[in-house]
Structures are given as C-alpha cells and as structure tokens.
Amino acid sequence: MDVCVIKIGGNIIDDTQKLDAFLRDLLVLNAPFILIHGGGKIATKTAESLGIPTQMVEGRRITTEPMRDLVTMVYGGLVNKTIVAKLQSIGINAIGLSGADAKVVQAVKRPVKDIDYGFVGDVTSVNSVFLQLLLSQGLCPVLAPLSFDVQYGILNTNADTIAAETAKALSKLANVKLVYCFEKKGVLLDVNNEDSVLPFIDKLKYAELKAANLVFEGMIPKIDNAFAAIDAGVKEVIICQAEEIKNALLHNSSGTKIIPHV
Amino acid sequence: MDVCVIKIGGNIIDDTQKLDAFLRDLLVLNAPFILIHGGGKIATKTAESLGIPTQMVEGRRITTEPMRDLVTMVYGGLVNKTIVAKLQSIGINAIGLSGADAKVVQAVKRPVKDIDYGFVGDVTSVNSVFLQLLLSQGLCPVLAPLSFDVQYGILNTNADTIAAETAKALSKLANVKLVYCFEKKGVLLDVNNEDSVLPFIDKLKYAELKAANLVFEGMIPKIDNAFAAIDAGVKEVIICQAEEIKNALLHNSSGTKIIPHV
Fold first, then answer.
1. Which of residues 66-95 of A touch B (CB under 8 A)?
2. Which of A75, A247, B71, B79 has the fewest CB atoms within 10 Å, i.e. the most exposed one?
3. Most A CBs within 10 Å, among B37, B80, B101, B146, to test the A interface
C-alpha cells in the first residue's frame, strides 16, 4: 500500500480560501493519505480573548494547564473538526483524532531540565496498526497536534514531529511519502529567491551544500529530520508549498524531494 | 453482541470528581459500550468569556455561527478529549468522535418553520457499521453532541437524540441497552420523593399511569422516546442516576427499566 502523510501549518489553516483550495487539491491524489495539522493563529487569538496568558521562558512558549485546555479545544475541536467537515463535504471520508483517541499518538511529558515546558509531549509511539485499519476502510485520518500520556493526559505536541513519527511507524506497513507543506516553494539555495528551489537532495548533495555553507540555517533541522525519517524506512520526504501540492506530488514540477540517493 | 449505549449530561461532565467516579464505574460493565456526552456549563461559561451572545427566540437557545464554532471547540474538543483521556488513563481504549468523523452521525439542518434554530441538526442516520467495527476492535466510542450535514457542516445536536438514534441503528446489529443517566434516581411517581422510583415500566403500566395523571410531565417525552427506541429494536431502556449506574446495570437495584412488556 502507498500512503502519503501530509503536514499543513498555520499559513493554510488560518486562511479559509487557501484551506478549501488545498483540501480540494487532495481529491486528485492517487494514494490514501493522513493529514496532520498544526495550530494556527486562532489558538493565540482565543487565548487572548479568554485572558489565558502566553507564558514564555527563554523565548519558548510554555503550555500551562489553562493553555493545554485551550489547545485541546482549538486544535482538537475547532481546527480538527472544521477540516474533517470540509473534507466530508467534498467527499473525502475523514476521521479526526487526537493522540488520545485509540492511543494513536502516545508520548511522555517532556522532562524538566533547564526549562519546564509544561504540558508538552515527546512522542514515544504511533498506533500505525489502527491507522492502517482506518486507511483500509477508505478513511482519511486527520491528526491534531496533541499526544497522550497515560499519567498527564493530553499534551501539546509539535505537528512536524507527529507527522515524522507517523510516517516512520507506518513505513513498517506501507510505502510512505512524507510531505511537509510550508510557506516556501521548497528548500531554497537563496532564501530570498523562490526560484532557487532544489528539486532534490540526497545525502551526498546535502553534505556538499552544508560544507559550502549553502543551506539556509532554518532549513537544517527540517532536512536532518527528513533524512532521519528516510533512515527509518520512509521512501521519500517532500517539502513544498501547500498551493503546489498537486505539482509536487503528481508532476514532480515543484517542491524539494529528499531521497536517500539519486 | 451486547452493547450498552450510555448518555451522560452536564451534571456529571461539570463535576470532575463525579465524572472520574462514573468513568471508573464503567470498568466493571460486562459489555462493550458507547458513551454519548452532553455539553455542560463550560460551553456557556466559555461563550460568556469570549463575548459570544446567547441568542434566545421564544425561550429557545439558537445556535448562531459563532456559537456553532464554540460548541465545536468545547463539545468536540475540550469535553470529548478530556473524557477520552480519562478513559485511556484507566485502561479503557476510547475514541472520541463528532458526527462528521467517519460520518458517524449525519443530520439535516433543522428546517426553519416558526423559529430559525440556526446550526442545529436533526439526525438522519448513524453509521452503525463503523461503530460496530470500532467495538469489535475493543474500542469504546465517545460521541460528542455534534452531527454533520454535508451542506452546512457541523451541527449542534441534542445528546439524548444522538443516544437514541445510535441505539436504534445498532440494534440492527447487536443487542442494545440504552442507558440515560440523569439527576434523579429513575422515573419517580412523586417528583419530590427520590424513594418513589418505579423499577420498571411496560406499555400497559405506562398507559395506566398516564390515565391516572401519575407521570411527572417532564418525564413524558423521555418515556415516549424510550418506547420509540424499543419499538425500533432496542432491548431495554434504563433511566438512572449516574452515581447508580453499577447498581442499575449489574444488580437491578436502582433506576427504572423501560421494557416492551413484563
């Protein structure tokens, strides 16, 4: 079985027209898929309206208990169910899940070292067997960025990480493509030039680029994570602009493909 | 297969200690179950904090678009996922669903006659085949009071109705008991006397009680709906206090059983 694991972020979630267009683009994919969504600005806006303070420690956002309740509401409720309802309305049989549902994404609360991040989860396992059962029934799982810890309950969790761990776990059962949709058209050689997209990167190319200081710093963790996913069995990682997903997946004419070697 | 369809309301959902005790009581049931939850005061409180006005027409609450978003957040996110996480933490493999997820509860937006109720759903079908698949996997579905209409999306829907329609649909595939947990100990002959619980009502008894004006008016729709469920194939409807669910289900020593005939 071929499966796409697709991650979308706030830039798409916050824009109804872009989101609608993106979801319609998914109709033409030739493989079953799992969608992982991030949060978007609606969480920050709702927190402000509810008077829940954003607590920062050394520049990092902390998930206090009221903030955990908030992200459970906004990510697990509003954002997740809105996407599910939109997919259903165009004929894609979606099912929205948090990490607690069928223990799809289990985690441990991040241990306190220098910083106490609060109710934040580090993923320990993904229930790929259950996800595969859903896929085999023609369902499209939609995962919120929330994991589950048996002791602490729902935990706020990075959507990129959930996407990577889901792709890795599923790669034991299927041929998995992991797709990160973001603002840029792909991995750029020049961060200010959208036409400088690298169409593919393998390990050799990546080593050359890093040695020549040609990789934009913000991209390094994303590419490192992509190779980690490939080392764990994922066939291909694609980094592309959400608006270009059809071109990236069907026509190889957009985005960057990260592959073990050419 | 025997299945219990259990509805809980705000009086349990709003009280963490009561909710925890109730969920632990479910551990000893001998049958798989589906839990349907109502809303609770948290929705009203959150709406007030967010400045979403409660709109009433002729004494009825209207679901405006901001209110629909709010119940999607609170019922589909916070309440649903909190219950799922609590069940998971005591070893019950729960999965939370809105009506849109796998089209579990489909509905039509209530037609406008005298009153425009807004985004409120009248249930048209329940995906009992999918619910049975989940039950067969050892999962416990937890349904939020939200249905789905392909044209209007997520709709606010009465939890009692979702419970009844779920029980009816599943009764084609399994032996179903429908359990309504509420504040009182059961159907009372005297609404002010908790010791006046009727242990059972069949159609004959109900006709007698109604003729003699002995049924408390507020109970009549509940009992009528219970008989409608029985006419549709549900084996038994139990009305009991949430705190008494073990006694009602395992020991027949609490609550009212509504059955076709003795």
1. 69, 72-78, 80-82, 84-86, 88-89, 93-95
2. A247
3. B101
ipTM over 0.90: yes
Contacting residues of A for B103, CB less than 8 Å apart: 88, 93
Q: Do B76 and A80 touch (CB under 8 A)?
A: yes
Query: CB-based contacts of A226: which residues, under 8 Å, 6+ apart?
Result: A178, A180, A237, A239, A258
Per the structure block, which two tokens stand in for B71?
């119940």
Read off the pLDDT of residues B73-84 as tens digits, 9 standing for 90 and up. Answer: 999 999 999 999
Q: Between the CA of residue A197 and those of A152, A241, B24, B260, what are the distances in Å?
A: 42, 11, 55, 71
Asked if A119 is an interface residue toward chain B (Cβ–Cβ < 8 A), one would say no
The residue assigned the tokens 């109970």 is: B219
- Mark B192-216 as b/e (b = at least 16 C-beta within 10 Å): eeeeebbebbbeeebeebeeeeebb
**A73 closest CB neighbour out of B74, B133, B146:** B74
Which tens digit of pLDDT belongs to each residue from B5-58?
999 998 899 999 999 999 999 998 878 999 999 987 899 999 999 999 988 887
From residue A167, alpha-carbon distances to A102, A187, A237, B90 in Å are: 17, 20, 10, 28
DSSP tag of B199 = S
Q: What is the pTM of this model?
A: 0.96
Asked whether the beta carbons of B244 and B182 are under 8 A apart, the reply is no
pLDDT for A173-192, tens place per residue?
Answer: 999 999 999 888 998 888 78
Instruction: Check CB contact under 8 Å for A77 and B82.
Output: no
Residues B39, B44, B45, B47, CA torsion sign: positive
Look at residue A262 in the predicted model and tell me its pLDDT. 67
Q: Say which residue the tokens 């029985």 belong to.
A: B230
Residue B244 is given by DSSP the state G
- Cα–Cα separations (whole angstroms), residue B168 to A76, B128, B171, B256: 29, 9, 5, 19
pLDDT score, position B188: 86
Residue the block writes with tokens 């499209």: A140
Of residues A51, A84, A100, nearest to B101 (C-beta): A84
pLDDT digits (tens, 9 = 90+) for B221-260: 889 999 999 999 999 999 999 999 999 998 888 999 999 8
Distances (CA, A) of A21 to A17, A244, B69, B121, B194: 6, 11, 21, 27, 57
3-state class of B197 per DSSP? strand
Closest C-alpha among B130, B121, B134, B65 to residue A78: B65
